[in-house]
Every structure is written in structure tokens, then in C-alpha cells.
Amino acid sequence: MAETLFRIREAVIATEVVDGISVLRLERNALVPGLLQELVEQLKLAGSSKKPVILTNAGQAFCVGADLNWLASLHDPALGVADLVAVHHLAISTIVEMPVPVIAAVNGAVAGGGLGLALAPDYCIAAERATFTAAYFRLGLTPDGGASAFLEHAIGPARTKELLLTNRRLSARDACAWGLVNEMVESDALLNRALSFANSLVPVPSYALLETRRLLDTMNLRNQLQLESVAIRTAARGEFFRERLREFRERHRE
């Protein structure tokens, strides 16, 4: 089992190869541009293996969205949001354009921009301790990372609006019942189940996989990402977001 650590400032992604299956672990659970840039590079490398790729996490959270400490430290947080969204959407596009199947193995909390990373893959397995929440409206922001498309496609407009309006924290069991994820397993069995599923897949030519994804993309993800990008950049210029970020900074100074 070979393992390599890739470090970009504070961001860490660990990769290992198990029975020919590439496993990419997010070892930092909050998004900064460097982490996402490295994720894009490692996805591209893993895609060249011609075998499925597993995206998972270390620690107690899969991905909780943007790193608010990082955003709060910037002179212009709205510009930080714009920079983050650009590379976040590049990561989402990279996942959906992978020439091999991508499996999300969600081992903990998912919030905000983490929804895109959990739902963009072809198959999502959640550990029983996993949770899912939108969290955007709490900051006065609109969905990004394809979340608006992935959520509506998976659970319909009514439940999508419910998650956005209420910031409800959806359990793994409820997420599975709603059709947001494909299956739920015991936390200790998550990686083994993901590896077993990956090894069970019938080999498929990259053309057939990519074209099938496009045929199923009834929401036109590329256009949706562009609409999301414009909307969240505009929202990040609003006073509501600036105030929430100031409140977050004050709480964390205490």
C-alpha cells in the first residue's frame, strides 16, 4: 500500500492505492483555494489509472465548506469568495469529467461547498455518522459547487428548498431515505465498502462513461455552475454576509 502526502501551505491531501484503486483523502475539512487546486491535480493523476477513484476524508468531517477563518482574515472576503468559487467549480467539473467512475465515501459532516464534493461523484456512500446541511443562508450566500443542481436532481425542488431555508442537518439515514446518497454503512466499514463497490464495477470505456454522464445531465451543470458563480459573488458583496463574517471573527477572538 503506497501513500504520498501532498501539502499546499496548510492544506493536506493524502492519497493511497489499494488493489489498484486510488483513494484520495481530504485531511483538511474546510475549503481554501490551495486544497482545491491540489485536489484537481490529484484527481487528474488518479484518473489516468483507468480504475475507479474514491474520494473520502480523514477526521470527523468530510467537508464543511469554505474556511471562514481564512475568509475573515482577508482584506476583501468577497474577493476571497470569488477566488474560492472559481477553483471549487474547477474541482467539481474535474470530478464530472473524470474518465473513470468516482465514488464518494463520506465519513462525517458535510456542509455548504462540501455538498458539491459529496454529490458530484457517480456514487455516494455515507457512514452512519455522516450529516448533510446546506448552511448557505446562515451566511446570506447562495449555493455553489453545483449544489443547487445536484440537490434538486436528487431530492426534488421541495426538499431542496427545505434544506436551504431551514439549514436542517440531515442524518445519513434520512439522506439515504431521501435519495441524496446511494447507501449508508457503519462508519468502520465505510472504506472497505467503497473499495468493494469500486472493484465490483464493470469496466467501461471512458467515452461511454462521459457521454452517459452528459445524457443524464438534464440540468446542464456547466451553465448552472456559471449561474451559481455569479450569484454567490454578488451575495458575498452584501452587508448580511459581511456582518455574519464579522460576528464569526469576534466569536473566535474570545
Which residues sit in consecutive blocks of at least 5 with pLDDT less than 50? Answer: 1-11
What percentage of residues falls in helices of 4 or more residues? 40-55%
The fraction of residues assigned to DSSP E strands is 15-25%
User: How many helices?
Assistant: 10
CATH class: Alpha Beta
What is the CATH fold-level name? Answer: 2-enoyl-CoA Hydratase, Chain A, domain 1
What is the overall pLDDT average?
93
Give the CA-CA distance, first to last residue: 44 Å
CATH A-level architecture = Alpha-Beta Complex
What about the largest sheet?
Answer: 7 strands, mixed
Apparent shape: globular
> Helix and strand succession?
EEEHEEHHEEHEEHEHEHHHH
User: What's the domain count?
Assistant: 1
CATH superfamily: 2-enoyl-CoA Hydratase, Chain A, domain 1
Folded structure, characterized:
By secondary structure, the chain is α/β, with parallel strands linked by helices. 49% of the residues lie in helices and 20% in strands. Strands 1-2-3-4-6-8-11 form a 7-stranded mixed beta sheet, with helices on both faces. The chain starts with a strand and ends with a helix.
Tag the structure with descriptive keywords.
single chain; alpha/beta; 254 residues; 7-stranded mixed beta sheet
Give a topology summary.
Layout lengths: L1 E7 L2 E8 L2 E6 L6 H15 L5 E5 L3 E3 L4 H6 L3 H20 L5 E5 L2 E3 L2 H6 L3 E5 L3 E3 L13 H20 L3 E2 H7 L4 E3 L4 H11 L5 H11 L4 H15 L3 H13 L3
Parallel strand pairs: 3-4, 4-6, 5-7, 6-8, 7-9, 8-11
Antiparallel strand pairs: 1-2, 2-3, 9-10
Helix pairs in contact: 1-3, 3-9
